Amino acid sequence: MDQEKKWIKAIQKRASEKAANKLISYYYKEIYAFVFKQTFDQELAKDLTQEIFISMLRGIHHYEGKAAFRTWLYKIAKARIIDYYRSKEYKQQKKTVNLLTDQRESDDVLFTIEQKDEVKQVLNLLEQFDHENRRIVQMKIFAGQTFAEIAAKLQIKESTVKTKYYSTLRKINEQLKEDVHGH
Q: Is residue 110 over pLDDT 60?
């Protein structure tokens, strides 16, 4: 998009507030929707979206145009969401347990997601599940929380958390494979 490049250059060269506002307006709804799908909290999504655009403006002088601007902006958004979940995790609980065997299946799904670059599709698939299943998957994958931490926070048995987590991942994985093979 030529207009996008003009806005970026105007911000980089002249610190143009008008160009910054136009660039933010252009991407605001899309980034807000992305953040909301990760948090399911309107106020939090607004705050994080604002922080993402502040980070974007602070770092725009380092943007060289090698990757598409949208890709660069999504990297900032993903990093901010991960930081949010990690900071929340550290405030609530300081114990860390390394569960490599439990991590294996989620790593496979993450690899599949990254390989196919189908984050939106996976998020849409995740929306088919109830709130609790979505939160469990988000807390495990995005926040890196242990099953014990998730169980404590949601006040349910650890075995229930594991069952729901693996069941949800399996269904998402099956759906991804079906979509790839066109069944």
A: no
Cα(first)–Cα(last) distance of the chain, in Å? 36
Q: Count Cβ atoms below 10 Å from residue 89 Cβ, excluding itself.
A: 19
In angstroms, the Cα distances linking 79 to 2, 9, 66, 125, 157 are 27, 24, 19, 22, 30
Residue with token string 């990760």: 38
Q: Which residue has the higher pLDDT, 127 or 102?
A: 127
Q: Alpha-carbon distance 160 to 175, whole Å?
A: 22
Longest dimension (CA), the chain: 57
Lowest mean pLDDT among 3-7, 33-37, 135-139, 163-167: 135-139
Residue position matching structure tokens 């143009």: 16
- CA-based nearest residue to 84, from 111, 51, 122: 51
Above 50 in pLDDT, residue 103?
Answer: no
| C-alpha 10: how far from chain center | 29
| H/E element, 108 | helix 100-116
The reply to whether the predicted model has a pTM over 0.85 is no
The answer to whether the beta carbons of residues 39 and 139 sit under 8 Å apart is: no
Mean pLDDT of the region 153-176: 88
Q: Tell me the C-alpha distance between 66 and 72, whole Å.
A: 9
Length of the chain measured in residues: 183
- 182 secondary structure, DSSP code: T
